[in-house]
Amino acid sequence: MGDLTDNKSLDNGVSVVPSRKKDIKVVFHKVSGDDDDDDEHTTETIHLQSKRNEERGNNEEARTRSMGNRLKGIFCPMCRRIGDGGDPISTEAGGTFAKEKKHCPGLGLFYGLLATVFFSVIALLVKTIDGIHAVEISAIRCFFQMLFVMPMLIYYKTGFLGPKEKRIFLVMRGFVGANAMILLFYAVQQMPLADATVIMFSNPVFTSLLAWLFLKEKCTIWDCVFTVFTLAGVVMIARPPFIFGARIEGIEEDYNSHLKGTIAAFGGAIGAACTFVILRKMGKSVHYYMSVWYYAVIGLIECVIAMFILGEWTVPYCGRDRWMLMLIAILGIAGQTFLIKALQIEKAGPVALMRTLDVVLAFIFQFIFFNQKPTLWSLGGACCVVISTCGVALRKWYSNGHQSRS
């Protein structure tokens, strides 16, 4: 009907006038009852627009716009839009998309670097404080951490007890994590700073083994190889007399203190690995600040009880040590915050590799502030532990990326 070039009247008084392809114009000629008044026709025009053509045009327009947005996402990363994060924005097609939050490239690694520096400075400050037991330092840190986390729990309305079915895991996380912190501080006081840091840094290797035992995660032959390398590095740092002889170089006081520090650092590494496994078991159903809250409260209670039993509670000798203790607590909170932010932005593999700088900073601090040169055995043990930790991080990074692609 749209191909007609002139008006053709129909017997029933209806004629069709050609118009655009999208419209069909129907003209009704209303004839009056008197035949003599044929010239006095009243014409009423009704425009009926084809809905089918309109819908087809809208679909083509939306398809063209969608293709344009897809091309923008390919050729212009700044214009990319995703549907599972960011703030929703409206488009002309009526759809709602989510705009991806744009982060500065390398921001996650920068946060990981800040966390590494803060944790290294904490170990250095613990080493410089004299006359205060490691348990008392841990108690002061837990006290200030608890004061910081309490307003956060009120702000996020999480409560102070957590989900009922997760409380047993929260208690275990607080108890094991507090013990790992105490053992680390004790190891730093009893042995060279770099040696204690290297042994504590071996916890990712033990995390893989404990996850295989308790969480049924996959364990490969590489995990076993990395574990052997880590244990070899710990032995090289500990240097037991029955292997290395009676004359041992590179220890601060006597070998008994060095051995106590080695055992404490190794126990702290196992405790840190258990903490990571418990956090994996809880998953994301528990708020991060709730986990830190249990860590601070249970750690404070445990440290206070231990101090009364040991009878080692003392007041810092000078104001400088008191400021150091407060700075340890503040840096501990800042380090944990930046580490969590790094893991939220960046993948765990690169962040774990960034944490290897902790060992390098420990050797640098030991040489600058304590004038202690590392021995070849310490450097060899550090290389074994760092290689093993980097191997675990790279393997996890590769396996996670391969699973996401498949």
Automatic annotation (TrEMBL):
Grouped into one coarse class, the protein's main location is membrane
Q: What's its membrane topology? A: Multi-pass membrane protein
Q: Which UniProt keywords apply?
A: Cell membrane, Endoplasmic reticulum, Membrane, Repeat, Transmembrane, Transmembrane helix
Q: Name one GO cellular component term.
A: endoplasmic reticulum membrane
Domain EamA, residue spans: 107-238, 260-392
* UniProt region (Disordered), positions on chain: 31-64
What SUPFAM superfamilies does the entry give? Multidrug resistance efflux transporter EmrE
Similarity remark: Belongs to the TMEM20 family.
Role, per record: May play a role in intracellular calcium sensing and homeostasis. May act as a negative regulator of plasma membrane calcium-transporting ATPases preventing calcium efflux from the cell.
Q: How does it assemble?
A: Interacts with STIM1; stimulated by depletion of intracellular calcium. Interacts with ORAI1. Interacts with the plasma membrane calcium-transporting ATPases ATP2B1 and ATP2B4. Interacts with ATP1A1, ATP2A2, KPNB1 and XPO1.
Name of this protein:
Solute carrier family 35 member G1
The organism encoding this protein is: Umbra pygmaea (Eastern mudminnow)
